[in-house]
Amino acid sequence: MLQRHTEVTTEFRRDECNPITRDVLTRVGDKWTVFTVVVLGGGPKRFNELKRSIDGISQRMLTLTLRTLERDGIVTRSVFPTVPPRVDYALTPLGMTLLRTLKDLHDWVSSNADEITQARAAFDRRSAVQQPL
Amino acid sequence: MLQRHTEVTTEFRRDECNPITRDVLTRVGDKWTVFTVVVLGGGPKRFNELKRSIDGISQRMLTLTLRTLERDGIVTRSVFPTVPPRVDYALTPLGMTLLRTLKDLHDWVSSNADEITQARAAFDRRSAVQQPL
DNA sequence: CAGAATCCGTCTGGATACTG
DNA sequence: CAGTATCCAGACGGATTCTG
């Protein structure tokens, strides 16, 4: 039957979707951020190593993503004054804790991508019947 | 079976950041998606209930977010032909599994928003010293 | 190698007005 | 109540070129 457990249930607290939370969530949930952090979860990497590991990312986006992550205290940037220059990126302790969460998210997506693709096809089929041109 | 064993050494498998995964991740990690799914984790909600619960979301974005989630098989949309109309949104079983992950992400952000804010301030201070106009 | 800088089309998303 | 439709500024992000 209709279980109408009146909305006395845990009401979502408004102060948990404040501007700061929203902003951080926007960056942290970003697709390139997820890939970057997950890849860095395998250990420190150099710039071009990361670029090769993250399929489809442009140099510009990798730079911007890394810069933002560094600013947010999630990755460190270590420059070795050699020739040619070498720059290592690694997760901070804070980044390590984020890794766990993002790895879960990434795994969920990987595991359910097919089901979602099928759901989309089914939805589009239903819509197509409703609106024949 | 077409198992490509090239570059087995790489910890991160390339086919795990394929276009589909990337696409799903882009949507699922979206800030409004996270808030919407987390709020729906508290039970079915009506359109305006959701709108009131998600601070700062516009009607347009709520509509688009819900439509996408419905298409992806993550939420259901139940229309009650009453006057005035009533539409309930709820998580599907697939949505329930996503909820766990997104709740973690949301909680991580809530817990670490302050630390990140401070990291940003520190980073900006360091940068400011380097570039005095 | 690791980027910075620039150009520029695409997409995002808020505001507003209208509807069944 | 629960949307749809339209407008439009600004952010996103790829491609390309240049540098220490």
From TrEMBL, chains A, B:
<keyword id="KW-0238">DNA-binding</keyword>
<feature type="domain" description="HTH hxlR-type">
    <location>
        <begin position="17"/>
        <end position="117"/>
    </location>
</feature>
<protein>
    <submittedName>
        <fullName>Transcriptional regulator, HxlR family</fullName>
    </submittedName>
</protein>
<keyword id="KW-0805">Transcription regulation</keyword>
<dbReference type="InterPro" id="IPR036390">
    <property type="entry name" value="WH_DNA-bd_sf"/>
</dbReference>
<dbReference type="InterPro" id="IPR002577">
    <property type="entry name" value="HTH_HxlR"/>
</dbReference>
<dbReference type="InterPro" id="IPR036388">
    <property type="entry name" value="WH-like_DNA-bd_sf"/>
</dbReference>
<keyword id="KW-0804">Transcription</keyword>
<dbReference type="GO" id="GO:0003677">
    <property type="term" value="F:DNA binding"/>
</dbReference>
<dbReference type="Pfam" id="PF01638">
    <property type="entry name" value="HxlR"/>
</dbReference>
